Structure formats: structure tokens, C-alpha cells
């Protein structure tokens, strides 16, 4: 397994993001309706196994000190193998290298595996922020990254 940087225009990233968004719509009963595609300002990492991207996650800068994890997704056939945990650690490293001291993210109340993953990786629940304010299904987390010596 390899974790590598991919551009937002990468067709495998686009396919994974679309699958993630469709799965979210199915999980939340289609409450939001619109499928979101990749954004130019998100830096993506892909987990590659046997030459194929099986997972992705992105990092978007909110400001000079804060990054937001976006579009975390592991193909269903590859879940339960620790891929999401490794990808999350790689995204944290990317955020650290970009100078962020805090990383935050949003997930849904209807995603118990995601809630468990983030809590077990040291993320603390925080009040909903930004575009998530007012969404009763949003759960937000943050984590302070280590400071360079």
C-alpha cells in the first residue's frame, strides 16, 4: 500500500469523491440532495493498492494555522484494514508540513465508524462551524498538531 499526493483533477480522485458523496446521500436519507465534486483548493492524498486508488482524503486550508480534512473515503471492499487510520495520519502530516497547528473536520451523526475513528485518533468534538452551522446531522472535531522542536 502506498499513500501519494494526487491533483484534484485526477480521475481516480474524482471517482472516489463521487462515490463518497453518493454513499453519504444514501446514509443521510438524501437530506442534502446535491453531490459535491472536487475543489481546486483541496490537496488530495490517495491510498493505492495493486495500482488502484482505494481511498482518498483531502486537506483544505481554512487559514494560516488551521486545516480542514475533507472527503475521507475508503472503498467498501477495503474497509476494516486500518487504511482510514493510516490516511488520517498522512493528512495530519501534510497539515503539519503546511504549517497548520490545528486540524478540524466535519462528519455526520449517521456515520458511527467515522465518529469512532476520529475520537480514537485524538480528535475532540467541537461546536459546528462554517457551512455546517444549522445542520442537525453535522458533528465537528478538531485536533492540535504537535509543535516542531
From TrEMBL:
Listed InterPro entries: Acyl_CoA_acyltransferase (IPR016181), Bact_Acetyltransf (IPR050832), GNAT_dom (IPR000182)
Keyword RNA-binding: no
Example of a GO MF term: acyltransferase activity, transferring groups other than amino-acyl groups
The protein's name in its UniProt record: GNAT family N-acetyltransferase
Superkingdom of the source species: Bacteria
Record domain N-acetyltransferase: where: 3-146
Entry keyword set: Acyltransferase, Transferase
Pfam family, one: Acetyltransf_1
Coiled-coil stretches noted in the UniProt entry, renumbered to this chain: none
